[in-house]
Amino acid sequence: MARIRISDVAREAGVSVGTASNALNHPNKVKQETLDQVNAAIARLGYVPNQAARQLAGSESRVFGLVLPRLDHAFSLQIANGAQAESRKRGYDLLIASAGNDDILTNHYMRYFLGAHVAGVLVQPMADTSWDPETQEAPVPTVYLDVHSRAAVNCVAADNEAQGRLIMEHATDRGARRVAIIGKPDFMQLTLRTYGIREAARNADAEVEFVGLGSWNSVKDGFELGRELARRSPEARPDFVIGLTDVLAAGAIAGFAAAGLSVPNDLLVAGCDGNPLAWGGTVPLTTIKSPGYEIGQKGVQLLLDELSQPEAHEPRQELVAPSLIERMSTASTPAERKRAEEPELDLAEYL
């Protein structure tokens, strides 16, 4: 089947090729009656514009690119949903690439989007505490998501340090004196949570033990860590366990149950990252409400701010404040447990 061209649209609409092109690329230059004729011709013929050719011809791109580390974590899905909603609201399309936690592939997709002449790029890198973006200036507005940087770049992130403080303060409010933190802080977000946990523990004069084992996203590792802690004598066992991620916390609850301990009757457990994909266990998990959706929205807003005022725009670094979701896993009194038995959270709100 022959490809429909702009000249075919012009002929069908009874206008010049230049007018048809303006109707697509600069509709403000075309009378509404002519615009309606061209759009009707496009619909009849099934014409699909060549976006690459349009951009090479100097048309303004209405597309953003988003690079995520992977799509099997609710936080990244929330970022994608927030960015998609805000892009559509502002008249932009969003292209999404998943890099599989691979820095090389992340850079490849960023270069691909730049080569495709998108209007701006959002990227959520897998970052350790020493991470910094490439120093050369990008040819289009770029916003880094869920990371902090010492460089003068746009960043929007969850306040992970505040998340750690909030969970630790919740533990001490529940009367916890011996708190175990499970998970190895391999990434910037996890390390910042440990900073907040340590600060809140010092303020409350609470004893904190970091059990730095286990992959951050492994239910199996959380299970094994729970069983390991359960084997301790009651005097040496923590009375509150914080998983640096919800996946680890959910695994630990299952590990305690396998060892004959009950959460929340024998000890309390909380997560720290608001990942509803980890909330399917037998005990509803106390955690942080994830701000991923808001981060996606704010990332797009930063792109648009820079597009609207490229000369005056100063790079910004924004933090999104956390809030606590209290559920059965930290209900320390009968009254709290009764409240926690109320209807389950609507997961759609968090995805």
Describe the structure.
With 351 residues, this protein is α/β, with parallel strands linked by helices. The chain has three domains: 6-56, lambda repressor-like DNA-binding domains (434 Repressor (Amino-terminal Domain), Orthogonal Bundle); 63-158 and 292-320, 3-Layer(aba) Sandwich (Rossmann fold); 160-286 and 326-346, Rossmann fold. The protein is 42% helix and 14% strand. The protein contains twelve helices and twelve strands. It has helices spanning 6-13, 17-25, 32-45, 51-56, 74-89, 103-115, 160-173, 188-204, 219-230, 246-258, 292-308, 334-340; strands at 63-68, 93-98, 120-123, 142-145, 154-158, 178-182, 207-211, 240-243, 268-270, 287-288, 317-320, 324-325. A six-stranded parallel β-sheet has the order 2-1-3-4-5-11, sandwiched between helices. Strand 1 (63-68), helix 5 and strand 2 (93-98) form a beta-alpha-beta unit. Helix 1 (6-13) packs across helix 3 (32-45). The longest helix is centred in the middle third of the chain and has 17 residues, at 188-204. The mean pLDDT is 86.
Report the average pLDDT across residues. Answer: 86
Number of domains: 3
Helix content: 40-55%
Structural class: alpha/beta
How many E-type strands? 12
End-to-end gap:
41 Å
Based on CA atoms alone, the radius of gyration comes out at 25 Å
Low-confidence stretches: none
Q: What is the CATH topology of the largest domain?
A: Rossmann fold
Query: Number of helix segments?
Result: 12
Main sheet, how many strands, which sense, barrel? 6 strands, parallel
CATH class membership of the largest domain:
Alpha Beta
The CATH superfamily of the largest domain turns out to be Response regulator
Strand order of the largest sheet: 2-1-3-4-5-11
- How would you describe the shape? elongated
**Strand content of the residues, in percent?**
5-15%
* Architecture per CATH nomenclature, i.e. the level-2 architecture of the largest domain: 3-Layer(aba) Sandwich
Order of helices and strands: HHHHEHEHEEEHEHEHEHEEHEEH
